[in-house]
Amino acid sequence: MRWLKTVIHVHTNYSFDANPSPAEVIDTACRQGVDCVGITDHDTIDGALEAREIGVVRVIVGEEISSADGHIIGLFLSKRIAPGLSLEETAAEIRAQGGLILAPHPFTILCEGSLHNAIGRLRPWLDAIEICNAQDFLPWENSRAGRYARRYAITPYVGADSHVRGYLATCYQEIPEFDGPAGFLGSLRQARLYPGRFGCGYFVQMGWRHVWDSLARRRWKDYGANVSRRTHTAPVG
Question: Does 235 reside within a domain?
Fold first, then answer.
């Protein structure tokens, strides 16, 4: 059986707060021995589609959707899902495309898009929950997500949530080869999880981006370079 080194929750510069182009994500994946990436830009699938066209690495087309109740990841999408819908409406839109529903960083207090208490409403729809996020600064946030997964028997996964060029496979899973959404979910249930956290260099770059956004009120160079190509533009910050 072939096992795939798989990184889920990856951003390109089609997200307002990320700087790697789709081609750079694929290049980094190749250099770090990654076989499969789930690209989940904020409120768009364009970056994932562009990366998939490059080939070389298997790309799962996804989106991190800004629902009215917090961020929800949809995987195996064919169409963009608009932000601002309720949690239930967003989940229904993902299901209508035959996609999978994932809860990213559900208990992260430093992320305004975390689901927090709303996750109870999403639980009937959930396919998998992120029990480690490489960007989470506080370890108890991941621990709480792990306990939640075990309590409700929800399939766990670990997410990179990478936004910075050159950073990718710090947090990944190895899963058996799969075919389609159902096959992926079955493989994820057999996953070998390799949790991790990005190093200081990553957080320094993200910190400077936040400072720049706050003071200059415009995006730092390369961050969100492709956002203008979309019909929806996420706010800076």
Answer: no
